[in-house]
Amino acid sequence: MPEIPQIVLPHGGYRKLTAFQKSEVVYQMTVVFCRRFLPAHGDRTVDQMTQAARSCKQNIAEGSASSGTSKETELKLTNVARASLDELLEDYLDYLKAHDSPPWAMNDERAVAAKKLGREHSDWEYWKPIFESRPAETCCNLAITLIHQARSLIDSLIKYLEADFVKHGGIRERMHAARTAARGEDWDKSVYSRLDGAATAVELEARADEIRRKVSQTVWGIKKRKGWQ
């Protein structure tokens, strides 16, 4: 009996993704940064930054929740999350420029230390007291480091999703495969029933010959339609 493929694949579980965990840190740090260092009123930058940070984590979550029925949607939303980080990164870089403060160089010991801590900690509880107490320049550079790490994680997630899509296909392909498998099962049952209903050995062979002829005719028709002969 053919195995009928699963149509709705396992989905959700996004909170276990390091990419999502890092995006939550990015969102929370942005909320604190805006509250501490940007004006509460009259500056659209606050809304833009918080919305971009929120868009990242929300699109990862929504994409993961959609993946059971639409791998295409999951890929699209994860790419939107990646684009939101690009937008947010520019805002932090603009802040440094506006305050005549260059970003840390890659070999700066502060940047090296920040990268190490970023790899070790993807939970907001660790970063919260840092962003609540450090000066603006430090918080901004830490944010830039964490955004770069989040982008790298999302890039890896996108590559995984692309490979997973190639392997499993979309829901249309899975539904077609399931219907095909179900029809194959029905065919197997009907053939067996017709053969098993023969009253004599001679009748059994006659029925078998009839089935063989029909199969040969069907195969010939398919080859002709596809141009294989």
Q: Estimate what percentage of residues fall within beta strands.
A: under 5%
**Rounded to an integer, what's the Rg over CA atoms?**
29 Å
How many helices? The count is: 8
Q: Describe the biggest sheet? A: none
Low-pLDDT runs? 7-12
Strand segment count? 0
Terminal CA distance reads 31 Å
Overall form: rod-shaped
Average pLDDT across residues? 84
Helical coverage, percent range: over 70%
User: What is the total domain count?
Assistant: 2
Coarse structural class? mainly alpha
| H/E element order | HHHHHHHH
Question: What attributes characterize this protein structure?
Answer:
single chain, 229 residues, mainly alpha, 2 domains, 8 helices, rod-shaped
Give a description of the structure.
- The protein has 229 residues and is mostly helical.
- The protein is built from 8 helices and no strands.
- The protein folds into 2 domains: 14-169, no CATH class; 174-226, no CATH class.
- It is 78% helix and 0% strand.
Short description:
The protein is mainly alpha-helical and 229 residues long. It has eight helices and no strands.
Helices and strands, with pairings:
Elements: H1 18-37, H2 44-66, H3 71-98, H4 109-120, H5 124-133, H6 136-168, H7 171-196, H8 201-226
